[in-house]
Amino acid sequence: MEPLFLALVGFLSIFVGVLIGGIGIGGILLVPMLTFIFGMGVHEAIGAAMFSYIFSGLVGAVLYARESSIRWSMAFWLFAGAIPAAYAGAFLSSVIPSWGLELFIALLIIFAGINAVISHGDADTMERDLKKTSLVGIGTITGVGSALSGTGGPLVLVPVLVWLKVPVLTAVGLSQAVQLPIASLATAGNLIYGSVNMIVGVTLAIALMIGATIGARIAHSISRSMLRKIVAWVLVFVGIFMVVKLAQNWPGG
I need a labelling partner for 168 at 20 to 30 A (CA). Which of 18, 19, 34, 138 fits? Predict the structure, then answer.
């Protein structure tokens, strides 16, 4: 591949990395960027993106852990649901229309964003303890939804936790950690079928690590209420973006 192509991919991916590191949500933009702007096939783009999420998740998890922003007691139960569910998601992807799942996720994101926008800011100052069974269930939903949609985990997890009134910084921190097992499992599957473009994947990984580092620092330097507002509005706009994209490719349209 030409150096200019890889340089452009890397440059634009840094911005995506900032979003991933700062608010968790951002990976949804990566595959459309690779397909629409750079002309990659969707399966090739998903394979490279999932590989890169391993490294952005690792950087994000380390940085958030240093700031004590990851509640590991919650993370481990999320892992318990997400890891087996990722395998199930791979199977379900062959029998469930992708547009149906993407529409569900888009509506979930919009709902969570609007709910966060209209919620009172003081709700974000209180830590919440979710039951272990609830966390396993959330992890299961995250694992299945991520495997079916080709995202690393935060796209599904952050809206669910925001909707459940989990503090945004905690939600984002957990989303960084959950990227690791989901992206690793997805990449292992993609490698078996030979659908990972390692050159693009490594380029994305480097760019996302740089961006995630910047984003994580921004997230910890602004007020909780400001972070909550940013996450809320980004959720709304990302949900609308997904609906518009689905409308353009609607079955029978």
Answer: 34
Whole-model pTM: value is 0.81
Backbone CA torsion sign across 134, 186, 14, 177: positive
Q: Look up residue 154 and give its amino acid.
A: P
> Most confidently modeled of 141-150, 165-174, 208-217?
208-217
- CB-based burial of residue 140 (10 Å sphere; 0-12 exposed, 13-18 middle, 19+ buried)? buried
